Amino acid sequence: MKKLFWLCLFFSYSSFAHQPVMDMAPRWEEGYGFQVRHEHYGSDTLLDGESDIGNPLNLKRYVNTTWLEGVYTFHRSVRTTFKLPYINQHRTRNINGVGVRQSNQGLGDLILGLPLKYYRNKKALTDNFSFTPSIRLPTGNSSGNFPISDGSVDWGLSFSYSSESPKYYTLFDLFYWANTEGASGMHEGDEIALDINLGYHPFHSNKTNSGIFTMWDITARYNDDPSNETLTTASGGQRLQMGPVLVLYKDNLMFRAEYKHLFYEETSSIGNSRGSELSIGIGITF
Amino acid sequence: MFNKTIDTILILFLYTMLLPVFAEHDYEEHDHGSELEVNKPVNTDDMAVLPGEAVIIVHGIVCSFCAQGITRNLSKLPFINHAKYTDGVKVEIEKQKITIAIKPDSILNLHQVFKSILKGGYEPVEAYVSDSNGNITVHKAEGL
Questions:
Q1: ipTM of the predicted structure?
Q2: Whether A86 contacts A94, CB under 8 Å
Q3: Residue B99 maps to a domain
Q4: Which of A94, A178, A237, B39 has the highest CB neighbour number within 10 Å of its CB?
């Protein structure tokens, strides 16, 4: 944990912003874009700390989220973003020694962001530093035995740095979510995470204005322990995920597919592993 | 396992921090436009500009997906010839170069061109314009 903390601190000198559609677009004034992205994660592996402890009750947790994301650019230095999830989740919990299936679906919490960017355009390179305050509003349902939201207003802050040349792209994004107490004593615990994207641009056609973009995504995340009353998917611990990202683009359309393999995970109590993640999305800018 | 992974990230981070340095070095070796004077005829084979066209050097333009705003802004200008390229505009990200086609018998307004590029999120540096005889003049993007 201590090493992860120092790693985050080290990277925070050069870190990042969370931007739907893409970090780089739209950077033109009055530009806007939308992205629909589907994300899947889940596992039936039961962990106690770092150890797989076996799972005779077949306890599991799977979450499917479809995100509608949007961005509007007032000026290349000032943007506003939204992210609205639709969540379909189910799990099997140990209740008095019996595996009980629980499920829920519906709209989740709306996230609004205000990316503020400082751009530097050089000869064959463009880079930017970003500072993004965010707020998460409790638009999701917080009732039931497996609520989608904890019903709280949460605050986020992201620092990022990204640079891009015709061939290479890098993004470092350090973000923090201060999760406040919501309905029925639920408190999901604060989160800190580091995202690193290392990108390579193997092909671009000037004639068709289309190309392929590949990235290697690295995510390190630490989550404080949620309160005992918390019934959402939140869980305490830390994890490290990495995986490839493929982006195809043509004119103002962009398709993105991403797989994040779980390389390391440590839970703060007995619980299901997060598992690996798969995400596909399509975005458009105007 | 965890410590090895962290060390790998650190190495990758240091490596990628050097990538922009390499990228800029590559460009320096091919930058033939920096010694040109303002509004003077240009005698260079490296900057090919066809009659009825202008070529603009733009700093930072390394991604065509991100440069759509420039293309859109430029194509709205009244003197752009939409019959050529994509709505009269060609972006070459490898050379940080934009070519615009000019309508016959219309007057090119370079100030509007430079402003459109700036509003698109990038820095115009200079424009190379060819007259009907094929003489090329260079115009610096200043005072925007």
A1: 0.73
A2: no
A3: yes
A4: A237
pLDDT of residue A20: 46
Sign of CA dihedral A105, A39, A150, A60: positive
Q: For residues B90 and A182, give the distance between their C-alpha atoms in angstroms, rounded to a whole number.
A: 53
B35 inside domain: no
Rg (CA), chain B: 19
Q: Does A214 touch chain B (CB under 8 A)?
A: no
Q: For residue A196, give the nearest of B13, B26, B28 by CB distance.
A: B13
Query: Does the structural domain A2-285 have CATH classification 3.20.10.10?
Result: no
State whether residue A209 is helix, strand or coil. coil
Number of domains in chain B: 2
Q: Compute the Cα dihedral for A270, A185, A63, A259 and give only its sign.
A: negative
Residues B94 and B61 in one domain: yes
The answer to whether residue B69 is domain-embedded is yes
More confident residue, A234 or B11: A234
**Domain-located, residue B67:** yes
Q: How far is A146 from chain B (nearest CA, A)?
A: 32
Structural domain including B18 reads 1-30
Residue A196 to residue B12, Cβ atoms within 8 A: yes
Same domain, yes or no, for B135 and B88?
A: yes
Nearest CA-CA distance, residue B138 and chain A, Å = 18
> Are B70 and B107 members of one domain?
yes
For A27-73, write each residue's pLDDT tens digit: 899 999 999 999 999 999 999 999 999 999 999 999 999 999 999 99
Which residues on A lie below 8 Å from B19 (Cβ)?
163, 165, 168, 170
**pLDDT averaged over every residue in chain A:** 89
E strand or H helix that includes residue B64:
none
Q: What is the CATH classification number for the domain harbouring B119?
A: 3.30.70.100
Residues of chain B found within 8 Å of residue A120, distances taken between Cβ atoms: 60
